[in-house]
Amino acid sequence: MDSQKEALQRIVTTLANKNEELHSFIDTLSHSLAGLQINSAQVLSDVEEEFDTLLSVLDEMRESMTNNIKQEQARKSHELQNQLTQSTNALESSEELLEFANSALDIKEEEEFAKAAKQIKDRVTMAPAFRLTMKPRATDNMTHLMVDFSQERQLLQGLKFLPVPSAPEIEIPDCLVADNVIRVAWRMPVEDSKIDHYILEYRKTNHEGLPRVKDERCWEVVENIKATEYSLSGLKFDSKFMNFRIRACNKAAAGDYSDPVTLETRAFNFCLDSTSSHLNLKVEERNVEWDPQGGKGLESKVKGKENKGSAHLTNLKNMSRSGTPSPKRTSTTRSPAMRGSRDRFTGESYTVLGDTGIESGQHYWEVKALKDCKSYSVGVTYRNLGKFDQLGKTNTTWCIHINNWLQTSFAAKHNNKAKSLEVPVPDRIGVYCDFDGGQLSFYNADSKQLVHSFKTKFSQPVVPAFMVWCGGLTLSTGLQVPSAVRSFQKTENGLGGSNSSLNSMPQ
To answer: Which of 99, 246, 252, 404 ranks highest by number of CB atoms within 10 Å?
Structure first.
């Protein structure tokens, strides 16, 4: 009994699944039938419109050519009619003169005869019949306006539906990914003179290999491309790969997509770690701004551990620090519960770190200071940076420091040593870190001119690090190492020897 019930239950489940499949298939067929009706009506309308346009062109050509024939007929008729009128008048005059001459022959009086003869001679000299050209000014020939549409008739009889374009083929060796620009090149498998334009579609993905049917990101579309290549510029590489596909279009239809390709777009992506920054820093994903009110308004009651914290702050006041200017700070005591995890940095270490470490490879990012920023540092550090440590003052931090407070200074700092940099402060600073090669270089991000380079040996993973006081910084991440920087590194090897006073081998 139980086995029969289980068998029946399996049959019920199978039937239910099959019914669900049938419902889905019926929906698909209904949708296809509705789409077929709509699409058929559309192509019928398009065909009728094309034939109406063609008939309109033929009507215009017929009217134009008919008018040409009528105008030629009118011109020739006018010429011949004028000649006919002139000739008729000349004939009448000539006949009258002939009759007068015949009658003069019968004159017997010599003097009267001489007078008539002279008169006839003068009239003959001036007679229109002797001044007319006896050649028609126009002919009755109209064959120069004949037509022969046999070829056109064959062409019209050869009208047929426009073929759907073939799928293009993406030429992977001709595709290029560099400097956050992607150039995609393709070709048609067979020459097609009817191609009007191409459509490029792309999307970011973190999946290697062939694109998945369903991905977390939608396809982006670039239309009306006339050439067989296209460059996407200004991209942020915040995914590991990008998928590409192309389709060709003629005036009537779009062809199938090309076989998709996946190009690698790896770059260094990170955000600022807002949970562990100094309380006087207002941190967003890629922006940090000094906020003098950042520590105010919190509870100041101290008991137990809080007394220890208060004493710690008192000791801070008595510490003498140089380098980073000291703004007027509040002595508000914060309980551990209220400040949460944001006690990573304190004192004058107005520091925030990136949330992604570098353990290998070559990486690049850019930093732009807000206008009138008083003091800031850009560099890298090991994660074990102390909460009171300042960038460049330990042997595990490397940075360049810009100080616009009172007197402007621009220096490279490491292990509490500073090297003055005799170059203008760039509007945007490019940071290049070659972890395996032990190199940290700073560039003018616009001109790619080297500002300073550290040569060292990283014994631990490093993270991007930033110090800000009275101002703010904006980061640009998802950038490839620029070609100009790669070339410079290959040819100059970082110029480590010129900065030997700041190079070190951290213990």
So the answer is: 246
Distance between CA atoms of residues 383 and 349, nearest Å: 14
The pLDDT value recorded for residue 487 is: 87
Q: What was the pLDDT predicted at 318? A: 37
Residue 418: in which H helix or E strand, if any? strand 417-420
Query: Which contiguous run of DSSP H or E holds residue 367?
Result: strand 362-369
C-alpha–C-alpha distance, residues 267 and 264, integer Å: 10
Q: What angle do CA 333, 337, 338 make, to 5 degrees?
A: 55
Give tens-digit pLDDT for 107-131: 888 888 888 888 888 888 888 877 7
Q: In whole angstroms, what is the distance from residue 390 CA to residue 392 CA?
A: 6
What tokens were used for 47?
A: 């065909």
Measured CA to CA, the distance from residue 288 to residue 278 in angstroms comes to: 11
Q: Give the tokens for residue 62.
A: 């017929």
- Please state, in angstroms and rounded to a whole number, the distance separating the CA atoms of residues 64 and 58: 10
CA distance 438 to 292: 37
State pLDDT tens for residues 252-296: 788 999 999 999 999 999 999 998 899 999 999 999 999 988 866
- pLDDT value, residue 137: 87
Characterise 5 by phi-psi region: left (phi > 0), alpha (psi -120 to 50), beta (else).
Answer: alpha
Please give the single-letter amino acid code of residue 247. R
Asked if 291 contacts 352 with a C-beta cutoff of 8 angstroms, the reply is no
CB contact burial 417-452 (16+ within 10 A = b; e otherwise): ebbebeeeebeebbbbbbbeebbbbbbbbeeeebbb
By the 8 A CB rule, do 400 and 421 touch? yes
Q: Which residue has the higher pLDDT, 1 or 260?
A: 260
The DSSP-derived string for 215-277 is: -SSPPEEEEEE-SSEEEE-S----SSEEEEEEEEE-SS-EEEEPPPEEEE---B---B-GGGS
The answer to whether residues 375 and 487 touch, using CB atoms and an 8 Å cutoff, is: no
pTM, 2 dp: 0.62
